[in-house]
Amino acid sequence: MNSLTHGFLFLSGLTWLLCEVCVSAGAGFWAPLWLYLLGFVVMFAIMGCLPLSERVINTAGPIFTILIGGSILLYAFGAFGAGFLGGFLRLVGGLALVILGVLGLLNREEKSPAH
To answer: How far apart are alpha carbons 85 and 49 in whole angstroms?
Structure first.
């Protein structure tokens, strides 16, 4: 992640999505939880375990942030049927994460090779 703020918002979105998929699993719909767990393993394998370059990691972080925000947006559209406030809060949070991911992709620091 490019900064502490991006990392904090990334982890907040990750936690928020975990809460959403756990509520879905509690209602008997387990597919989102299994997809989340698969994505979680792949995400942390790429960002933390595999010996990849910093450029790849700085690209993967914003992409995963966009995926997390998009997933929260999917929950937002489903939540508007139950009430406006829950859907609106999910919409704002999901959009914030998508925008953060796009900004992270645009503001990646390219290190020049040392001469």
So the answer is: 39
- Find the farthest-apart pair of alpha carbons in the chain and give their distance in angstroms, rounded: 60
pLDDT in tens, the chain (115 residues): 556 667 788 889 999 999 999 999 999 999 999 999 999 999 888 888 888 888 888 888 889 999 999 999 999 888 877 778 888 999 999 999 999 889 888 877 655 455 4
d(CA 47, CA 43): 6
Kindly tell me the burial class for residue 74, based on how many C-beta atoms sit within 10 Å of its own C-beta (0-12, 13-18, 19 or more): middle
- Model-wide pTM > 0.90: no
